[in-house]
Design brief:
The structure is a single chain. This protein is mostly helical and about 80 residues long. The protein has one domain. The protein has 2 helices and 2 strands; from the N terminus they run ββαα. Strands 1-2 form a two-stranded antiparallel ribbon. A hairpin with a 2-residue loop joins β1 and β2. The chain is elongated, with a radius of gyration of 18 Å. It starts with a strand and ends with a helix.
């Protein structure tokens, strides 16, 4: 647990927030890289599509991390 002010936050929520911030930065850079005059899709649509993919990847990562951490806790309880 990491203490932020009066709140205690675990590893999974903090890693999800960091991952989403990093993926959001990459999503904007990739949208800027994909935007070309010969393509009719506006830049805002490219950013929304890339941000949606970043959010979906963060959601899947969060579910997997929480399941793995639950399994580790359950396994420790079972062995003790």
């Amino acid at each position: 647990m990491i203490k932020l002010g009066k709140f205690e936050v675990g590893f999974a929520p903090i890693s999800m927030a960091v991952l989403f911030i990093i993926l959001s930065i990459f999503a904007i850079f990739s949208a800027l890289n994909q935007a070309r005059p010969e393509f009719p899709m506006p830049l805002s649509s490219l950013i929304i599509i890339n941000e949606t993919m970043a959010l979906l990847a963060t959601l899947v990562y969060g579910i997997l991390v929480h399941l793995i951490m639950s399994f580790v806790k359950w396994n420790r309880k079972r062995k003790s």
